[in-house]
Specification:
The protein is built from 14 helices and 18 strands. With 453 residues, it is of the alpha+beta class. The strands form five sheets. The protein has a six-stranded antiparallel sheet with strand order 11-12-13-14-10-15, with no helix packed on it. The two termini are 38 Å apart.
Length: 453
């Protein structure tokens, strides 16, 4: 539930993620509304392909940014003053690019393997090629690599789902945008797409228990450590054997596809077992799998080998971000990419490092946790991780971080003035209320009596 906070903070600093998420919102909801406002957390269902397309277009149109699409297989280093330093990168085709800083943000592709039942094959997400050579090179440079694991649920065809048997989950009536750049009125004019909720049952659990002997989790085929807060469905059945059912969310992948995502149903079971599991769920009796669920193992580093700038301690100019640092999720990866990128640029310009404290932002909490405590599982941001969560609200991210974004050159003078003006008005109103009272009178007493007070 801390992921939404990260997106607001990126936006306040001048980043792009929140604005692009607003542009492709399919549904918006606010989590934690049963608790205090400080831990409200916005989440959106986004159109994945449109987000990717829009973000790539934005990069292509960014001044002074050169885009090269290639697989990097080597980080080139040289010794200087007793310490290795980055001097270039090499592509699989032999191309060499001279650089003084490099950010490794390889996601879950480093020597990655996809696992479904007894099938283990070298591959990254969506069957793309794994980055084996880069992983070997990083090991040869002295980086201590370890193995983590994550997973994904099956994708099913919407036309084969009986939605009449599912619980409807509509979006919230008034959407608060992630980004200050988003027109709130236009955002609230979009037609939100409904998601649905369904539950596993005893039959589902029986199928899983009967096939645990075929699960790579329990046969020893999976060696990586998975995320504690997002276990596979077979892991849930074993760990929470007393639970009669588990909640699943049926979510659209986009406007231009019939593909649906079953959140909460990730698995590495053989495909035929996945089909039997799926068909045991109410409303999914005839559902057709378009892509089976799978587990994926990948290499990552111990993040305690990094400075708070996310620079590797033993190689000058080498930075890490995202799953490479042992974290989990798009939002966690985005904020680390932002911090690593800013610090790489500032290092080259001989400027002071950019470091956020735990008291300043959830971003500061996340990075401090990683580089000081490390993690023995894919790290996920949650509001409970921050001791400052009552003051690190979503709705004051601009007040906290826009001045810093302005200093970095990513927030314009005009935007900063709007933020300053907004909070000047808040302080004036608080002061007015503190010095405004209503004296006792017959009219006031009559009003209070009429209201039953």
């Amino acid at each position: 539930t801390g992921k939404g906070h990260l997106v607001f903070e990126i936006d306040a600093l001048g980043g792009e993620m929140g604005y692009q998420a607003d542009r492709v919102t399919l549904q918006s909801r606010t989590l934690n509304t049963g608790k205090g406002v400080a831990v409200y957390s916005k989440r959106v269902q986004a159109d994945r392909r449109e987000y990717q397309k829009n973000m790539k277009k934005t990069l292509e149109e960014t001044p002074n940014l050169r885009l090269i699409q290639a697989e990097i297989v080597k980080i080139l280093t040289e010794e200087a003053d007793g310490r290795a330093m980055v001097v270039g990168v090499q592509t699989r085709l032999g191309g060499i690019y001279r650089v003084s800083a490099a950010v490794v943000c390889a996601g879950t592709y480093l020597s990655s393997s996809v696992i479904v039942g007894e099938c283990v094959c070298p591959a990254g997400p969506d069957s793309l090629l794994p980055a084996g050579a880069l992983s070997e090179n990083l090991s040869s440079l002295g980086l201590s690599m370890r193995r983590f694991k994550t997973g994904t649920p099956p994708r099913i065809h919407a036309d084969t789902v009986d939605f009449s048997k599912l619980e409807l989950q509509e979006g919230e009536r008034e959407i608060t945008p992630f980004s200050y750049r988003t027109d709130k009125r236009k955002l609230n004019e979009i037609q939100q797409i409904a998601c649905h909720i369904v539950y596993t049952n005893e039959d589902t659990h029986r199928v899983i228990r009967e096939n645990l002997g075929r699960s790579p989790l329990y046969t020893g085929r999976i060696h990586g450590t998975g995320p504690r807060y997002c276990p596979s469905i077979e892991d849930k059945i074993v760990r929470f054997a007393d639970k009669e059912r588990h909640q699943l969310f049926i979510e659209p992948m986009g406007l231009d596809t019939e593909e649906l995502y079953i959140q909460g149903f990730s698995s590495s079971m053989p495909e035929e077992v996945q089909i039997e599991m799926l068909h045991s769920v109410k409303g999914l009796e005839h559902a057709e799998i378009m892509r089976p669920a799978y587990a994926i193992e990948y290499d990552c580093i111990d993040p305690t080998a990094l400075y708070p700038t996310l620079e590797y301690k033993h190689i000058s100019g080498l930075y890490g971000a995202g799953q490479f640092n042992g974290s989990s999720g798009y939002e966690e990866a985005a904020v680390q990419g932002f911090v690593a990128g800013v610090n790489a640029a500032r290092k080259l310009k001989s400027e002071t490092p950019f470091i956020l404290g735990r008291e300043q932002a959830y971003i500061g909490t996340l990075i401090d946790d990683l580089v000081t405590k490390g993690t023995n599982e894919p790290y996920r941001m949650m509001t409970s991780r921050s001791e400052y969560r009552l003051i690190l609200r979503q709705d004051n991210a601009d007040e906290r971080l826009a001045p810093i974004g302005h200093e970095l050159g990513l927030v314009s003078d005009e935007t900063l003035q709007k933020v300053v003006g907004k909070y000047d008005a808040v302080r004036r109103e608080i002061k007015r209320l503190e010095h405004t009272g209503v004296p006792s009178s017959d009219a006031l007493n009559a009003l209070l009596t009429s209201r039953g007070t």
